[in-house]
Amino acid sequence: MAIKKKSKTDKLLAKNGRKPVAVVEKARRGPRGFTMPVGLAEGFGQLGLTQADVAGFLKVSKKTVEREFQKGEESEFVREYRKGKASTNRSLRMKLLQRALREDRDSLLQFALKNFCGMKEQVEVENSGEVTVNITMGGKDLKMPKWLEN
User: Fold this and answer.
1) Are 59 and 66 in contact, with CB atoms under 8 Å apart?
2) Which of 6, 41, 79, 114 is the most buried (most CB within 10 A)?
3) Calpha distance 113→96 (Å, rounded)
4) How far is CA 106 from CA 68, 111, 120, 122, in A?
5) Dihedrals φ, ψ of 119, to 5°?
6) CA 30 → CA 14, 45, 71, 118, distances in Å?
7) How many CA atoms lie within 13 A of 1 on its CB side?
8) Could you give the CA distance from residue 41 to residue 59 in angstroms, rounded to a whole number?
9) Per-residue buried b or exposed e for 74-101, using 16+ beta carbons within 10 Å of the residue's own CB
10) Has this prediction a pTM greater than 0.85?
């Protein structure tokens, strides 16, 4: 005599005594042991793909890609991705600087100096006047809080 294995509906029926309307199964998880393709990582970085873009391209969940990036420098995939991204950043900087120098445009030079050389514009603001604050709530003026009076 063979013993029949209980199905999910039999288990549900046993719990509450009613016949189930529908059996909802959990979404199937991806294959175990998926390894990120290190050979493509540098190209992904050069293109500036986001983690969501990489996940879509590889047909894996975004969480899978996030887990790989959380490994940081331990992951060869992440190291190659960052190498590709750094290469593109270097190329863009060089193009910008060459264009700024060739065209002799101050706005491009200022942009490059601020973003790549850490220079900043300092703005000084002098306040030599009185400020009046009116607080209204529901169309009615409210009293000035004591901490705002001085």
Assistant:
1) no
2) 41
3) 11
4) 42, 8, 15, 18
5) -75, 150
6) 31, 24, 20, 45
7) 1
8) 15
9) ebebbbbbbebbeeeeeeeeeebeeebe
10) no
Burial of 20 (0-12, 13-18, 19+ CB in 10 A): middle
- CA-to-CA distance for 76 and 110, rounded, in angstroms? 37
Give the model confidence (pLDDT) of 82-105 as tens digits: 999 999 888 888 888 888 888 877
CB 20 within 8 A of CB 13: yes
Distance from C-alpha of 56 to C-alpha of 51, rounded to nearest angstrom: 9
H/E run at residue 137:
strand 136-137
d(Cα 136, Cα 130) in Å, to the nearest integer? 20
Residue recorded with tokens 């969501």 = 52
140 DSSP β-pair partners: 137
DSSP state of 18: S
Distance from CA of residue 75 to its chain's centroid? 19
Q: What's the CA angle centered on 121, arms 120 and 126, to 5 degrees?
A: 135
Q: How confident is the model at residue 17 (pLDDT cuts 50, 70, 90)?
A: low
> Tokens representing 28?
């199937």
